[in-house]
Write a structure and sequence with these properties.
This protein has 99 residues and is of the alpha+beta class. The chain is 39% helix and 18% strand. It has a domain of 63 residues: 2-Layer Sandwich (Ribosomal Protein L30, Chain: A). It has a three-stranded antiparallel beta sheet with strand order 2-1-3. Helix 1 crosses helix 2. The radius of gyration is 26 Å and the shape is rod-shaped. The termini are far apart. The model has no long low-confidence stretch (mean pLDDT 90).
Length: 99
Amino acid sequence: MLVFAATKEQTDTETRSKTSLAPPWQIIVHDDPVTLMGYVTKIFIRVFGYSEAKARKLMMEVHKTGRSVVWTGAREQAEMYTQKLQSHHLLTTLEKVED
């Protein structure tokens, strides 16, 4: 009589979940020939809570280079800030930050 012994193999499986964060978005304010520099500075302070020095620095970047990235972060918050800036008549766009 032939008897076979059964062997039980134990297999460990490791599951790794890949989590990735959503890419950040940036708000860009563009220069326009109509909006006054003091007004732009005041809006940056009001919307973002920036210091006057930071708001003025960003406004000067818009004025001299034609655009400035004024905020970077999560998409939903970026959309909210973009709408606020546009409601104050600032020429604003929203762009995904590329890797």
